[in-house]
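User: Predict structure, ligand flavin-adenine dinucleotide.
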Amino acid sequence: AAAADENDVVVIGGGPGGYVAAIKAAQMGLKTTCIEKRGTLGGTCLNVGCIPSKALLHSSHMYHEAKHAFPSHGVKFSQLEIDLPAMMAQKDKAVSGLTRGIEGLFKKNKVNYVKGFGKFVSPSEVSVDTLEGGNTIVKGKNIIIATGSDVKSLPGITIDEEKIVSSTGALSLSEVPKKLVVIGAGYIGLEMGSVWGRLGSEVTVVEFAPDIVPSMDGEVRKQFQRMLEKQKMKFMLKTKVVGIDASGDVVKLTVEPAAGGEQSTLEADVVLVSAGRIPYTAGLGLDTIGVQTDKVGRIPVDKHFMTNVSGVYAIGDVVPGPMLAHKAEEDGVACVEFIAGKEGHVDYDLVPGVVYTHPEVASVGKTEEQVKALGVAYQVGKFPFMANSRAKAIDDAEGLVKILAEKETDKILGVHIMAPNAGELIHEAVLALQYGASSEDIARTCHAHPTMSEAVKEAAMATYDKPIHM
Ligand code: FAD
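Assistant: Predicted complex:
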């Protein structure tokens, strides 16, 4: 057992990786302390990421629906307006309720919570400058680094969080910008672009790469981009921003083709820089104890999440792998299970990805491009929501389900869904892949009618046979 002041597990960082690891450790009977500098728990995800963005996506979607969809459902308003402060207050309430909820879970599970900035003084000691002032040393037999990630800036661009904002600033603009330029067509840029576009901004997305969301299945991506364009989002692909001037009332951006060529100018009231995120380990004292990082600053770990220093572990956004909250949580649980001498397991091939636009795009497993590259013979089953009765009933029928299955065995290799609630629909596919199911296993599973999920069943039928409703 640990000495009175010594923990079995110390977690630095209270994000989805860190707080989940801390709760799991305490539940397993380990004496646990979690150190968080922010003053609130939940990390990037709860405070300035997943949760506030989904709150604003929902609020802005409601406005957009009220304006564009309600009349055709026979619901009419004489007046419709946006109360932005109220919208922001609802988002803030969701965030504070959830972050306080985690504090409650810490108490319930007896996780000791230290508010302050932690830095290593030895592989088993963390010095914490506490938020209330002063310093304390927290000792642990095992220390988990869960310090997450931070916004990546671009050379020559200074984020002031007013006119040139990161995702954090884009979550709390005080007015709807007339023109919003988004640099980077990843999921964060597209989600935040959708929020402000629905509220009235003219949105232009500038992307260096030839495609938006490069990890997406190509066919689904094409439809997705068309859908966003229908919503008036403009794309400048294969384009780089070479200069930015924020000295005047409007921001002036100079852009040129990625391959070089003629320059042009764009104007914006607000520019969102969403060109990726970088691991955050500033001031953590990794050098002091000799923890290695790779060339982009991530901390490499072994199969048990241990760094090159014995007893020091790392999880979540700070280690190589997808920077997603649910992946960080899986890391956290598995890492603690290893520390407790049990088996932990995360299947990194089956981490679902979701873009929470409208419709949403969700995927798990391999894209068609990846399957092709593997050289396996495969079948594709597709089913459009236009032929799904529930989607038609609610008049929200854009999108499709696409299932890739191995030709010889019918084993499912990848599933891609574009639908209003694709982020929920994807999980039967995640489970199917987890169990190594065949497409026929899904097709022969009874799905309730009328549901959007029936489109998953019909796409599964289409891989090896014919769907009924197409
Ligand atoms: P973080 O959440 O970054 O938490 C790390 C914590 O450690 C921070 O609170 C930080 O203050 C603290 N910390 C750092 N250094 C120290 C120190 N030295 N001492 C004490 N504390 C320290 N992911 C999804 O899965 N779904 C989404 O919908 C989604 N939407 C997103 C939207 C936006 C706008 C952004 C920015 C991100 C989004 N993400 C989403 C990504 C998600 O937020 C991250 O993958 C997730 O938060 C990573 O968890 P983590 O615990 O590794 O790190």
